[in-house]
Each structure stands twice: as structure tokens, then as C-alpha cells.
Amino acid sequence: MDEIDKLHLLAELSHDFCELNHGPGTRREDFPATDYIVMPFGYPESDVSEVSERELVVPVCEECARALLGNEWTLLYCFECCSSQWVSRKLAKNSYRDHILWMKGCPHCACEFGGVHFKDLKAVKDSATFLGNLIDEIAA
After folding, report:
1. Residue 103 CB partners (closer than 8 Å, separation 6+)
2. How buried is residue 140: exposed, middle or buried, by Cβ count under 10 Å (0-12/13-18/19+)?
3. First-to-last C-alpha distance (Å) of the chain
4. Cα gap 130→35, rounded to integer Å
5. Considering only CA atoms, which of 45, 52, 43, 65 is closest in space to residue 2?
6. Whole-model pTM?
7. Beta strands in the chain (DSSP E)
8. Where exactly are the structural domains of the chain?
9. Which helix (H) or strand (E) holds 3?
10. What letters, b where the CB count within 10 A reaches 16 and e where it falls short, cover 66-96?
11. Per DSSP, which regions of 6-121 are E strands?
């Protein structure tokens, strides 16, 4: 994603709403977006470089952005059907350490599970990140 695309997305931010799951009986219009998660998907070209074929851009509200950077919640996100589910780390049977688990296929959209991509937003640079952080890095 080049700088012009990033600025265009940020200009549209005031018209977007959070696309993450806020629970039953909620309307997405009640959660205005304050940032975007940008997740590049591609393949390694060599040990040093990677080719990004496409980028998934997900608008998020301030509450979800805080939850993604904290250690209380893990987000399960299917990039095939764009469904999401929050998992409380202290109540979960499994031990989650990553902030986002990107799934290829989920029970909502596929009969066959296609795999998981783990992302820790605090530890991984040049991967899933908030668009607002990218603009701050460009300005610096």
C-alpha cells in the first residue's frame, strides 16, 4: 500500500464503522471507526523478501484497537468471510498469546479449515499493524 492509498483510507475514516464483532444485538453504526488494521497477505520470495499479493484493511473502533493491543483479549478473524470473534484469554480453555489469529476458513464459511496465521501486534513489525501507526512513522 503506497502513501496515497493510506491517506485516502484515513480521509474516509470519518465515514467508516468498526467491522469487528461487538456481540449480539449491536449495530455497527454505534461504533465509528478510529483506525484501520492493515494485514498484507502474500508469499516469501526468498529468505529476505516477501511479495504481498493483497492487503486486508479492517476498520476498527477505539475500543477494539485498545483490546487488540492489550493482553486480555485475542481476536479470531476469518479472512475468507470477514467474521470475527473475541476470546477472553483468562476464560479460554487454550492459552492464547497472540493478539489476532487470522483464519483461512471458519465454521461460518467453510467445511474445511485452511490454516491460521498468528500475529502479535506489539512484536511483529512490517506485518499486521494499525494504519495510524504507519502514518506516524512516515511523518517522523
Report:
1. 76, 77, 78, 79, 80, 113, 114, 115, 116, 117
2. exposed
3. 18
4. 7
5. 52
6. 0.70
7. 35-44, 50-60, 73-78, 84-88, 100-103, 116-119, 129-130
8. 3-139
9. helix 3-12
10. ebbeeeebbbbbbbeeebbebeeeeeeeeeb
11. 35-44, 50-60, 73-78, 84-88, 100-103, 116-119
Amino acid at 133: N
pLDDT in tens, 75-114: 998 878 888 999 999 998 888 888 888 887 777 787 766 6
Q: Residues with Cβ < 8 Å from 72, sequence gap 6 or more? A: 88, 89, 90
Alpha carbon distance 39, 50 (integer Å): 13
Cell of 133: 501507526
